[in-house]
Amino acid sequence: MVSDTPTLVSSPSRWTGFLDRNLRNPLRLVGIILMAYLAYIAIANIASGQFTLERFVRLFIFGLAQGSIYALIALGYTLVYGILSMINFAHSEVFMAGAYIGFFAINAMDQSGFLDDQTFLALLITVLVGMSASVTIAVLLERIAYRPLRGAPRLVPLITAIGASITLQQLFLRLFGSGTRVYPDVNFFVLPGIFNNLECIEVNGAQVCRGLDLIGGRYEVEFLGLSLQIRPIYFLVFFLAVIFMAALWFFVKRTKTGKAMRAVAEDKKTAALMGIDVDRVIVTTFVLGAVLAGAGGVFFALYNTQVQPFMGFFPGIKAFTAAVVGGIGNIPGAMFGGMFLGMVESIAPSLLGIPNQLRDVIVFGMLILVLIFRPTGIFGEVLSEKKA
Amino acid sequence: MLRKFVVLVLAVMLLTVAAASAQDAPVVTIAPDGSVVIGLAAALSGEGLAPLGEDIQRGAELALDARPTVTVEGKEFAVKLDPQDDLCSAEGGQTVANRFVADAGVVGVVGPMCSSACRAAAPIFDAAGYSSISPSCTAPGLTLSGYTSFNRAVVSDGFQGVVAAEFIYNTLGVRKIATIHDGSPYGAGLVEVVTKRFTELGGEVVAADAVNVGETNFRSTLENIAAEEPELIYFGGFAAEGARLAQQRADAGMKDVIFMGADGIKGGEYPTLAGAAAVGTYASSAIPEESDTVAEVLAKYLEKYGLEKPTGPFWPNAYDATNMILDAIEAVGTLDADGNLVIDRAALQEYIRSIKDFKGLSGVLNCDGTGECSAAKIGIIQYGEGGAEIEVAVGVPNPDGSITIEVPES
Fold first, then answer.
1. Does residue B6 lie within any of the structural domains?
2. Mean pLDDT for all residues in chain A
3. Minimal Cα–Cα distance from A347 to chain B, Å?
4. Contact (Cβ atoms closer than 8 angstroms) between residue A74 and residue A322
5. Which of B165, B179, B345, B370 could link B198 by a cystine bridge, Cβ 3.0 to 4.6 Å?
6. Is B49 inside any structural domain?
7. Does B295 map to a domain?
8. Is a pLDDT exceeding 50 seen at residue B76?
9. Dist. CA B50–CA B351, nearest whole Å
10. pLDDT of B214-261, one tens digit each?
11. What is the CATH number of the domain that holds B56?
């Protein structure tokens, strides 16, 4: 298809080029009409006062936390795909393992009173335990399920990944039972100096204000004339996710191991010839993805409280979608895709006046729309002949 | 030559087996030393569901403890239970039904547990001429679809939903509600009944939405509902989603909005899952007739399984359903010349459908010929601290079809 190759030419023919590209292709035409229709509904809803700014901001905040979780998981999919060109469908169980095993840590500390005494330390331990559990599962997964199939046709590890996913779910089911476990209520008070009018209690007749409750708190905030219900944990999850992603970015771009990862992603054989231990790099990649997923699992459980062996399925499938929307194999793409999907999921149903039950239709519809116009995802580079 | 012979023999054997299994559908024959097998289909795994299913299984087991044999024409036959997981889903119901139908020794089935599973299993049982008595499938439509195999020893949501609507409107004095269901026939059917009655009474349903089973974050759903400012959220579904909605409603600024569900969130895991958010929420369920027998069986339940309270509300129904099947077997079973127990499936089903004045744990049951066998009262409870259940109202059906809501004096 000649018209598909973008050419940089002067503006008049650029326009005809645009029309040429998009209108002659029936799929793109449908996509454009659909987008225009959705935009029309959205504008109509805003104009009629159905969708207010206040509602937008509230939903945006929900989307922020959810999107961060998706982004953290999506990075695991994208890293592994970048290196092995394989979808690790068992990654959703790596996420689940982090949340589930983290529960045992936080629950034990809650029982012993450590959680109340040393909240920060206890949370740190929980996150570390969750991460270690995820890392263990991911390393075993790579070793047992994927490494023996390194040279096999691409469909083989894919099916194995699905099998591994089911195996892990059932393993957790048999080991820990089908019951749902609930994270304890955590109150983590910070900055009593600044937030000196929050969470006040009477101690021996004197008023003591404990500051902002970062995890369990729930506050009515008036902001620019909007009345908002805010839980600091949404922002906490977002900021922690950003820090994790920045660290990952630094690791991949600035360290020697990161360089080796990029080399292996480019061409495994050549990298091996250059003296890079490919197996080690691949394990490192799985570990990195698992660290992010484990942290994401614990964050997710801290604000949604319930954990059970099948909890990974939905976040996993959404995060995979996010990775594809962003361009699978591309790190900023996964971050953007995760946030984008979290936002769409949260905001789009009410913006378009659609029942919330259908939000997955919108999410996957968005995936299709993005793929119509950018088959490799928003940030996706054109894959070289060899990798594609 | 030998190979051809083997193939021929195999083919003949297969044909014989096929012919035999095609013939023995309408009657069950049990050898003198064999035992009567009762199938049990309930959700024995799954988030928030397993406790309800195990509760049903315990009810049936207790019934068999009290009555380990059936006596036909003076001869005793042992009774065995065959519990299978129906996953509380259409696929699970189908699988379990096919399994029971393939085993010609299964005389009757207690279950399935969830309306979705009941709906999927019923046509399969119909075709095989089986009888099932569900202790918990409450969707109103099940007895209106002309299934020949389906019976239930539990009160229909046609009644439970009406009691809920009357309670919300008259007792709580609420005029604006929002409804959420989980997309299951049970949840959607319940919400439909509540909506219908509540609007008839003069109330307004300001928002109606649904959630997907298995999802965790319902905050944006609740946010949209909050915009319509309901006074109460009515939820049709099970414990996991119910608990999430009860918890997350505070995140959408609806901490003080009343949350109410039905038997899907009664007992079991719901109060544990929702924690502090469960306090003050309401749930309804059929209540067993108060009698010494109920107390006695309950004591056995708690002792045998080492529990402080039942894990679900349906054990009395399962107990009754099991006894109804055993009664039916004793009534229609005959002995043939060799001493085999012969049960005609059609006669069994006919007997079950015409059971009258059955004094069970869940009340006095009268089957009306459509498969509807219960006329129990509906109790509404409010959760207190630590999962305590405080009875706040009882819905009693009147002979003229109206309902009286009795509020106990506090």
1. no
2. 87
3. 7
4. yes
5. B165
6. yes
7. no
8. yes
9. 31
10. 888 899 899 989 989 999 999 999 998 999 999 999 989 899 999 999
11. 3.40.50.2300
> Is pLDDT at B207 greater than 80 in this prediction?
yes
Long-range contacts of B96-99 (CB under 8 A, 24+ apart): B96/B39, B96/B41, B96/B121, B97/B41, B97/B121, B97/B124, B97/B125, B98/B124
Count the alpha carbons within 13 Å of B380 in the hemisphere toward its beta carbon. Answer: 28
Choice among B88-92, B104-108, B406-410 with the minimum mean pLDDT:
B406-410
Burial class (CB in 10 A: 0-12, 13-18, 19+), B10: exposed
Tell me the percentage of chain B whose pLDDT exceeds 70. Answer: 92
Q: What is the pLDDT of residue A1?
A: 43
Higher-pLDDT residue of A15, B49: B49
User: Where do the domains of chain A lie?
Assistant: 56-185+233-373, 189-223
Q: Looking at the partner chain, which of A63, A229, A357 has a beta carbon nearest the beta carbon of B251? A: A229
Q: B318 with B221, same domain?
A: no
Long-range contacts of A369-372 (CB under 8 A, 24+ apart): A369/A31, A369/A34, A369/A35, A370/A325, A371/A324, A372/A27, A372/A28, A372/A30, A372/A31
Tell me, yes or no, whether B239 and B365 share the same domain: no
Identify all chain A residues contacting B269, using CB atoms and an 8 Å cutoff.
179-180
Q: Which residue in the set B50, B214, B275 is minimally distant from A310, CB to CB?
A: B214
pLDDT of residue A51: 84
Owning domain of residue B353:
27-154+314-375
Q: How many domains does chain B have?
A: 2
pLDDT tens digits, residue range A87-140? 999 999 999 999 999 999 999 999 998 888 888 999 999 999 999 999 999 999
Q: Same domain, yes or no, for B132 and B54?
A: yes
Q: With respect to residue B192, please indicate whether it lies within any of the assigned structural domains.
A: yes
Inter-chain Cβ pairs, chain A and chain B, closer than 8 A: 89
B209/A355 CB distance under 8 A: yes
Closest approach of B141 to chain A, Cα-based (Å)? 23
Cα distances from B290 to residues B303, B360, B376, B377, in angstroms, run: 19, 11, 11, 11
Same domain, B247 and B323: no
Q: Both B329 and B273 in a single domain?
A: no
Note whether B126 and B229 are same-domain residues: no
Q: Which CATH class is domain A56-185+233-373?
A: mainly alpha
| Mean pLDDT to the nearest integer, B267-276 | 86
Residues on B contacting A at a C-beta cutoff of 8 Å: 45-51, 183, 209-212, 214-221, 223-224, 227, 240, 243-244, 247, 250-253, 269, 272-273, 275-276
B73 and B127 within one domain: yes
Considering only CA atoms, which of A233, A221, A300, A299 is closest in space to residue A57?
A221
Are B40 and B173 part of one and the same domain? no
